[in-house]
């Protein structure tokens, strides 16, 4: 189950980053930001609900949220500096 959580989040983050990279519109920044915040919020909510149910999987939702945040910070750095 843990691998499924990380895998789905990685795939969704890839699609968000690819959409942002391939788009030239200013609206894409807003759409990508909303999609990222929604994905981060879903992970935090699922982690919170799993924590309330006392399921040990809640930590993986939180770890995934932290990983998503760090990934977006790295992507933002690459975008600002113009490449690796």
- Percent helix, as a range, is over 70%
Shape: elongated
**First-to-last CA distance:** 33 Å
Mean pLDDT: 89
Put simply, the count of helices is 3
Radius of gyration: 14 Å
Category from helices, strands and their pairing = mainly alpha
Tally of separate domains: 1
- How is the main sheet built? none
Strand content: under 5%
Describe this structure in words.
The chain is mainly alpha-helical and 84 residues long. It has one domain (2-17, 30-81). Helices cover 85% and strands 0% of the residues. It is built from 3 helices and no strands. The chain has helices spanning 2-22, 27-52, 58-81. The protein is elongated, with a radius of gyration of 14 Å. It starts with a helix and ends with a helix. The relative contact order is 0.14. The model has no long low-confidence stretch (mean pLDDT 89).
